[in-house]
Amino acid sequence: MLRKRVIPIVLLDGFSVLKTINFNKRRNLGSPITVVRTYNTRNVDELIILDIDASKDGRAIDKFTIQELALECFMPLTVGGGIRSINDIKALLEKGADKIAINTYALENPSFINEAATIFGSQCIVVSIDVVECNNNYYIFNNGKTINDIDLFDWISKVENLGAGEILINNVSRDGKMEGANVELAQKISQLVSIPVIYAGGVSSPGNAALVGNTSASAVAISSIFHFTNSTPEDCRLAFKKLNIPVR
Fold first, then answer.
1. I need a surface site. Which of 112, 118, 201, 204 has the fewest CB within 10 A?
2. Nearest to 167 by CA among 151, 140, 190, 150
């Protein structure tokens, strides 16, 4: 059995770290270099960095920021935000990114997933999907709007068929609240596809992270409890081990 992963997420608004609630209310947390250095000391073996303002600002995540962070950190980096071209991907990989997360442009131009996977390899391409919960249903959420004309589960299957190597699910409805992950959603999506699924959103404790780890999901991505509580990635790994879940 493949070992599950615990992955911190670092959100940027260009050049500063922030944490959101429901992708809306924001709290500034300072320098990304400081955050990356902290995760270095905590033996994190993977990191996700997303610029949440890049798409709406009409730009890609800053490649020189990624270069600076890559020089500081000793773990693989997945980076995303405003990526709309092969040149964007190439520039970020050259600056030290290991994987690229695409979201908005994948919805606008699905063939870009296949183009990117063909050029750089599926293992390099992560498709990030923002999800909202409503009356026991799930919908795609993008740039502040609910997308009603694309079925979430059809989109997830299409993403896999187009060559994505991994899927990152961001649960907007639970983002930043630390009230508990949607374990059912993590299981449902991860059983739908054969590629790895990372679930993010609402994790309330190391024990709650382990419940996600106990699904078919390959990884749980976490932000708030690492920023605002004393919980660490190692605490999450210990919680996985208590449930006999193989973890990196």
1. 118
2. 190
Contact by Cβ (8 Å): 49, 18: no
Which one from 51, 62, 88, 130 is the annotated catalytic residue?
A: 130
Each domain of the chain, given as residue ranges in start order, spans: 5-242
Residues 5 and 233: beta-carbon distance below 8 Å: no
Separation between Cα atoms, residue 184 and residue 246, nearest integer Å: 20
Q: Cβ atoms within 10 A of the Cβ of 121, count? A: 11
- Looking at per-residue confidence, does 40 or 215 come out higher? 215
For helices 63-72 and 86-94, angle between their N-to-C axes, nearest 10 degrees: 30
Residue-level pLDDT at 1: 62
pLDDT of residue 30: 78
Judge contact between 69 and 77, C-beta under 8 A: yes
CB 77 within 8 A of CB 66: yes
Q: Say what the alpha-carbon torsion angle 38, 46, 219, 59 is, to the nearest 10 degrees.
A: 90
Q: What six digits make up the tokens of 239?
A: 């919680």
CA distance 194 to 198: 12
- Indicate if 130 belongs to the active site: yes
Instruction: Write the CATH number of the domain with boundaries 5-242.
Output: 3.20.20.70
